[in-house]
């Protein structure tokens, strides 16, 4: 029997609410743009198959952090019963899951992928994993970041919804529970679009949904005792193979210095000289 | 901060901005030799690419020159870990008032041959010679940096937390900064920076830098458990990634900015014995009462350096009178320094006497007369007018 504070009349019809905010495997740090702590430079591997991730500090995708925050807020409002944090990737994922636990998630699931194979795990593979987990754990809501800031694919949430055949509310800037439905306000090019989704559903978070909390010390300590289950994709019957191959990863071309000119006549002459006009 | 490089009468301005070349960098020893006009942040990038960092870091890094840093013996945020420029600078090339080029630009860690002349020029604020090149020892770039932001219930707990830090974190401690509740309120009000922990009378920022992420995380966890368990700290958070760590540092680094939005700011930068640190702030608050808008204390507690700031709607000579010489006499009574890192420049040259005895000032005049008899170098600054 679900606790107090939830949607009123239809409460007894629903199984206990579970929430599954997910993040893709944690990401290498971005290069520093602001001063202070020493910078971590992102480097392309000499064989051009990707970027160097060995020894680079990994952290939670910022949009996924917003998803975790939203999940925890729903739990604090007593609208959901349990928040499970999931991450799919190499061993560094566990640190990220711990951060989610410190923010207020109840338990974690780490779908372990060896580092050597992690490069080939893309949105479709993660979506397959999440779909299977959503079914296994019988969740009512899957919350993800709208996209990962390393590949900017913006596909995992949508694919997960497709595989589960669940409704989706993407680029959410506001999420409200209205009885058995979820009202999602989405940021779209033309402005804001409001959808009503029947649960269970998939929601992906955008920047303006919330400001993630800092994990406080007492919660960081408590998080150490929370459970993280470690499983393999094969335990879920998921095939992680990909039909995509990365052909090459290269640095963007070095920017050459600009040229200053004195007058507009000089500017026109220069543009003609380089064949731009 | 004290008008040391501001022309006030009939001076000619000399800029070393075009002397911005790195002369050499030895990547085993980490010794950098460069011209005085190199910008600190650019030097940091240069040595970072080679696995090192500059031994100092400050808010003005994007524009300050290394020559100026040495001439003012700049302190900054890495002081606790890497020490003073007096230790990290290995050699200088200086042009004297008569045009002599003094080449003391060695890159040796140890050289006890005669008097250590470079120490005269470090911190001399350009009054004894013009620094044209610097040889400086750079530490290896830490592989793991952690930032924790904690709330303390009282100043006694802040001091105990510092002792505990030194004991449990030991060699990986790289910064220990403190700020009071008023500072937090001001950065929230004027800069809309969110308070990351429960409201507390004091906040401390602890940074660790080391070569092993696992080892450092373990030590930090140990410290946090101990501090939380013993009530030294009532709440806290750890920067779990670089952007979080920067946000936490911003709470401390942007206090000056927040103060400037609060009104006219009277700024004091003093060195005091740590036990009496906050007493000056409390005393001043009581003394000024409603005449001041805010009286705040923050700073490099690990270095014994308090930044005391008083804000008011506008400047008033009455308020200045209530502040000075009270702050200076208070500091002098604790045998503290009336200018811990900002120097004397124009604004504090006449208060030198609060922290140095007359015999010391006398010797300073003699050295100045010896090295610059015609008073060409940065006149009207640093030393009080000769009696």
UniProtKB/TrEMBL annotation, chain A:
Q: Which family does it belong to?
A: Belongs to the ETF beta-subunit/FixA family.
Q: Can you name a GO cellular component term? A: mitochondrial matrix
Asked whether the keyword Membrane is assigned, the reply is no
Q: Which PROSITE patterns match?
A: ETF_BETA (PS01065)
Protein name per the record:
Electron transfer flavoprotein subunit beta
Electron transfer flavoprotein alpha/beta-subunit N-terminal domain location: 48-240
- State the Gene Ontology terms under molecular function: electron transfer activity
Entry keyword set: Electron transport, Transport
Q: InterPro entries attached here?
A: ET-Flavoprotein_bsu_CS, ETF_a/b_N, ETF_b, ETF_beta_N, Rossmann-like_a/b/a_fold
Q: What does the UniProt record say this protein does?
A: Heterodimeric electron transfer flavoprotein that accepts electrons from several mitochondrial dehydrogenases, including acyl-CoA dehydrogenases, glutaryl-CoA and sarcosine dehydrogenase. It transfers the electrons to the main mitochondrial respiratory chain via ETF-ubiquinone oxidoreductase. Required for normal mitochondrial fatty acid oxidation and normal amino acid metabolism. ETFB binds an AMP molecule that probably has a purely structural role.
* Primary location class: mitochondrion
Q: Which GO terms describe its biological process?
A: amino acid catabolic process; fatty acid beta-oxidation using acyl-CoA dehydrogenase
User: What residue stretch is flagged as signal peptide?
Assistant: none
Q: Where in the cell is it found?
A: Mitochondrion matrix
> Subunit structure, briefly?
Heterodimer composed of ETFA and ETFB. Identified in a complex that contains ETFA, ETFB and ETFRF1. Interacts with ACADM.
UniProtKB/TrEMBL annotation, chain B:
Q: Which domain of life is it from?
A: Eukaryota
Query: What function does this protein fulfil?
Result: Catalyzes the oxidation of D-2-hydroxyglutarate (D-2-HG) to alpha-ketoglutarate. Also catalyzes the oxidation of other D-2-hydroxyacids, such as D-malate (D-MAL) and D-lactate (D-LAC). Exhibits high activities towards D-2-HG and D-MAL but a very weak activity towards D-LAC.
> In which family does this protein belong, per the annotation?
Belongs to the FAD-binding oxidoreductase/transferase type 4 family.
Give cofactor(s), names only: FAD
- Could you identify this protein by its name? D-2-hydroxyglutarate dehydrogenase, mitochondrial
> Keywords on this record?
FAD, Flavoprotein, Oxidoreductase
Query: Source organism lineage?
Result: Eukaryota, Metazoa, Chordata, Craniata, Vertebrata
GO CC, alphabetical: mitochondrion
FAD-binding PCMH-type domain mapped to chain residues: 1-141
Gene symbol here is D2hgdh
GO molecular function of the protein, one example?
(R)-2-hydroxyglutarate dehydrogenase activity
Swiss-Prot/TrEMBL catalytic activity: (R)-malate + A = oxaloacetate + AH2
Q: Which InterPro entries match?
A: FAD-bd_oxidored_4_C, FAD-bd_PCMH, FAD-bd_PCMH-like_sf, FAD-bd_PCMH_sub2, FAD-linked_Oxase-like_C, FAD-oxidored/transferase_4, Oxid_FAD_bind_N, Vanillyl_alc_oxidase_C-sub2
Q: Which organism does this record belong to?
A: Heterocephalus glaber (Naked mole rat)
Q: What is its EC number?
A: 1.1.99.39
